[in-house]
Fold HAD family hydrolase.
Amino acid sequence: MSLAIFDLDNTLISIDSDHAWGEFLLEQGAVDPIAYREANERFMADYKAGTLDMAAFLEVALKPLADNTPEQLAAWHQQFMASKIEPHILPKAEELLARHRTRGDTLLIVTATNHFITAPIAERLGVDYLIAVNPEMENGRYTGRVSGIPSYREGKITRLHEWLEDKDFTLDGAWFYSDSHNDLPLLEEVDHPVAVDPDDTLRQVAEQRQWRIMSLRD
């Protein structure tokens, strides 16, 4: 039995859930239609280029959580799951998860998207463990700030090792599946790195290092 670790966005689902949540908020009229859309697109481009300023991104991304009640956010997320996420869950991703379950592996999603967005997605996929960016809460409301280290790039390794300290698992024989060159630090940490529908940079590295390359979309 090993740890099977998965990136979420554009790996197990065929979209970026952070970006899709931003689009959903725009559709609800919940954010400034010009400034927020411009920021959402700019941050997505920066992420793909590997130049994302995570602090600046989170300042914008977590503000709508602070600006709305938990009840309103929960209602929106239910709609978001049905309209934006469910159509983009990849059947082959569910088959891959099922294969690891059958092997007796422990499933874990490690994502740079925040816990509010991703926890219901992980639950829908039947993945018990999730490491995500943690939005800070005070008195039952989101503050708009982040709690702890964001699980982005090298931060994924830091958060994973913090998580492992409280568990009986190790990285011996571990797998990690990702589409993004931003995840190279964690891909280099595991015994079985797998590039899933990789971006051009990750594909080049995977080919050079003879890592497995696979598609969950064909």
The chain has ten helices and seven strands.
